[in-house]
Design a protein that fits this description.
The chain has helices at about 1-5, 50-65, 70-85, 85-100, 100-125, 165-175, 190-205, 220-225, 240-250, 270-285, 305-315, 335-350, 380-385, 400-410, 420-430, 465-470; strands at about 15-20, 20-25, 25-30, 40-45, 130, 145-150, 155-160, 180-185, 210-215, 230-235, 255, 260-265, 295-300, 355-360, 360-365, 365, 370-375, 390-395, 415-420, 435-440, 460, 475-480. It is built from 16 helices and 22 strands.
């Protein structure tokens, strides 16, 4: 990764950003290369006093007045333009700190440009006010009313390791588009992309006193959660941590994108030549560390053998290992400990009856893409999020049975369905309790302008700039009486 380190040097900002300037922290923590374990950088850490100062500064800036929607739009458009010009540097930083592949990095940067652009466009529509038809009620003759939207105030974005650029943008950019100051706390495992994005927004013209970068561990996040001046929390992470975020937020608003067990259903008429390669990619890119990664494939019993043979061949052919190789699809997981835990779950499933059709090898943080079949109903692979390049194939007899299996899990983020029958589409859409259903695509078929979020233990609230901005603002009813 030495070449990545050299080309990414311009983006390696390891300090904090608060009160309108880059500052040293109260200490530091190491950032490691996910493939070879070497130390990349020492990242400055914020203590509770610095968190308090950062939030105080954001509040003062908000009270002094925020840029109007046109200015916010122009800033976000400039940020998108700068990112387009500096795409190679951002992709190098992304590869350096995540251990993900060249294609993952290029896709992430391209999507981030889209997220910034979408947010810029939505900023111009922020003050699209809605009239209320008071004349339809008895009494208020001549009275007029409308609903306007206003920014909430300081927003805290607490982001995960697995999409440290575009997921950050999905929280920071809509917050800015809606006129809110924002405090960003990135994952301590991938902090550099968040720092680069904050730097990008300031260079694009967003007021420096209306954004803060607070690096650190769970203690930094707890300090943000304890500060009652924060009006909204945008969080992506585990369901366990999400419960703690919501408990601390209390009556304040939040958007929680939490855990998932993502399924994709293959009906008997599925176009397997399209479906199986898509499933393979959705299961193993980013080493399976995506909330919507295909964890379970439900294949109708009539096509089970064909599906098993096809997925086995594709899994065995999946290039894995060093993410610096252009052909690699599956690189290292976020840490050797995470990879070992996933390997233990595979071994447990095999011990109680699952068949390992492909993969399962482990070297440091690299877990070989793995396909299993026939895991028992109570297997951890079918009931808990594994967040690894591990896919389990299960048969079903009827679409109703497949939907029931998905609904029996505590999660409900996304599902995929391959079929040519419109009746099957509507049956699944009515039955499945998920935030999104992707027909003739996998569970991992997100487009950045979509409303994106889950139900049940997968959380609530929506990403997608237009939808996030609604939640990051408040409605005010204004009436006029002649």
């Amino acid at each position: 990764m030495a070449s990545d380190a050299a080309s990414a040097s311009a983006r390696l900002e390891a300090r904090l950003f608060l009160e309108g300037r880059w500052q040293e922290g109260a200490g530091s923590f190491p950032l490691y290369d996910k493939y070879d374990g070497c130390t990349i950088a020492a990242i400055e850490r914020a203590d509770s006093e610095q968190v308090e100062r950062a939030v105080r500064g954001l509040c003062m800036a908000f009270d002094a007045g925020v840029p109007d929607p046109f200015e916010r739009s122009e800033t976000l458009h400039r940020a998108a333009g700068l990112l387009r010009e500096e795409a190679a540097d951002f992709a190098a930083t992304y590869r350096l700190e995540t251990g993900f592949t060249h294609s993952d990095a290029e896709t992430e940067v391209a999507r981030c440009i889209q997220t910034l652009t979408l947010s810029a466009e939505e900023a111009r529509r922020f003050e699209k006010n809605e009239t209320v038809p008071l004349s339809g009620a008895p009494g208020p003759s001549g009275r007029f009313a409308f609903i306007m939207r206003a920014p909430l105030g300081p927003i805290a974005a607490i982001t995960p390791f697995n999409a440290p650029l575009n997921t950050v943008a999905h929280k920071v950019a809509p917050a800015i588009a809606a006129g809110n100051p924002v405090a960003l706390k990135p994952s301590s495992m991938t902090p550099l992309c968040g720092a680069a994005l904050v730097d990008l927004m300031v260079r694009a013209g967003w007021p420096a006193d209306m954004i803060a970068l607070l690096q650190g561990s769970a203690e930094t996040a707890k300090a943000l959660l304890a500060d009652q001046r924060i009006q909204y929390y945008a969080f992506t992470g585990s369901t366990l941590v999400g419960r703690a975020v919501q408990a601390a937020a209390g009556l304040r608003r939040s958007q929680l994108e939490l855990g998932a067990i993502s399924f994709t259903i293959l009906e008997p008429d599925a176009a397997l030549e399209k479906a199986l390669p898509a499933i393979r990619n959705a299961a193993f890119r980013k080493a399976g560390q995506v909330c919507t990664s295909v964890q379970v494939v439900l294949a109708h019993e009539d096509i089970l053998t064909e599906v098993a043979e096809g997925l086995t061949e594709l899994t065995l052919a999946t290039p894995f290992g060093d993410p610096a190789r252009p052909e690699t699809l599956t690189g290292p997981m976020i840490s050797p400990a995470a990879a070992r835990e996933a390997k233990e779950r595979i071994d447990q499933a095999v011990a109680v009856g699952a068949d390992r059709l492909a993969g399962g090898g482990l070297e440091r943080a690299v877990l070989q893409p793995t396909l299993l079949r026939g895991a028992p109903a109570d297997s951890v692979l079918l009931n808990e999020e594994i967040f690894a390049p591990v896919m389990t194939l299960q048969p079903y007899r009827s679409l109703d049975e497949a939907c029931q299996r998905i609904n029996q899990t505590p999660y409900g983020l996304a599902a995929g369905l391959f079929t040519q029958r419109i009746g099957a589409v509507f049956a699944a859409a009515r039955r499945l309790r998920v935030g999104s259903l992707h027909v003739n695509n996998t569970s991992s078929a997100r487009v950045d302008l979509m409303p994106y979020g889950g139900v049940k233990d997968s959380g609530f609230g929506k990403e997608g700039p237009a939808y996030a901005m609604r939640e990051m603002s408040e409605e005010r009813l204004i009436t006029f009486t002649p």
